[in-house]
Write a structure and sequence with these properties.
The structure holds 2 protein chains of 2 kinds. Chain A is mostly beta strands. Chain A has strands at 5-7, 10-13, 19-24, 31-38, 42-50, 53-57, 64-68, 74-78, 87-94, 106-107, 111-115. Chain A is globular and about 40 Å long. Chain B has no helices and 11 strands. Chain B is globular, with a radius of gyration of 14 Å. In chain B, a hairpin with a 6-residue loop joins strand 4 (33-38) and strand 5 (45-50). The chains are: A mainly beta, B mainly beta. Chains A and B meet through strand 4, strand 5, strand 9 and strand 10 of A and strand 5 and strand 10 of B.
């Protein structure tokens, strides 16, 4: 079974630009979460999508947004990029079979975004 | 505000030794505590996880010890091997209708020397 696939693996952008990152979850997984990883702040939760609806959101500015499609694939967008947005952006998917289900999140390899 | 605090930041252990990483949390609503292992250039991979109804869980050389009253949990790696050299993250979350966001510790960089 293929794992979580994130594209592209690397991106270089300049300040003020916008960027879109893509995530394909493991087949059959319905929940997709996004995390930002930086050396200073570690892994921080951005948002989570389930059945095309944003279910939870972390403490990030509105420049960070996302969406989920009917096939569970997800995209996240960052507008008006700032230098501090340079990070590894990780996507994770989980099966989620119902209330009390194990929250086993499987991560992709991430997209490394560099903002110049 | 860091909801999960992890220590030490880095750890050097000799081959065959025991690696111990500790985490503490504040939110008593957390009910799922996974440990993730991350190698350079890779995403985190689930290593082992525990729920608060048990005090210990062992899988191979990896053991989680959980102390609910102290709000602390730890990862023990027995017979540490050079291949275990990686960054380890503890995390905590709670089952909720609003999702399962993982709150991560800041990570421990483990180096196992030959």
């Amino acid at each position: 079974k293929a794992g979580v696939t994130q594209t592209p693996r690397y991106l270089i952008k300049t300040r003020g630009q916008q960027v879109t990152l893509s995530c394909s979850p493991i087949s059959g997984h319905r929940s997709v979460s996004w995390y930002q990883q930086t050396p200073g702040q570690g892994l921080q939760f951005l948002f989570e999508y389930f059945s095309e609806t944003q279910r939870n959101k972390g403490n990030f500015p509105g420049r960070f947004s996302g969406r989920q499609f009917s096939n569970s694939r997800s995209e996240m967008n960052v507008s008006t990029l700032e230098l501090g947005d340079s990070a590894l952006y990780l996507c994770a998917s989980s099966l989620e079979t119902g209330a009390g289900a194990k929250n086993i999140q499987y991560f992709g390899a991430g997209t490394r975004l560099s903002v110049l | 505000q860091q909801q999960v605090k992890q220590s030490p930041q880095s750890l050097i252990v000799q081959k065959g030794g025991i690696s111990i990483i500790n985490c503490a949390y504040e939110n008593t609503a957390f009910d799922y505590f996974p440990w993730y292992q991350q190698f350079p250039g890779k995403g985190p991979a689930l290593l082992i996880a525990i729920r608060p109804d048990v005090s210990e869980k062992k899988e191979g050389r990896f053991t989680i010890s959980f102390n609910k009253s102290a709000k602390q949990f730890s990862l023990h790696i027995m017979d540490s091997q050079p291949g275990d050299s990686a960054t380890y993250f503890c995390a905590a979350s709670r089952d909720s209708n609003s999702g399962y966001a993982l709150n991560f510790g800041k990570g421990t960089s483990l180096l196992v020397t030959p």
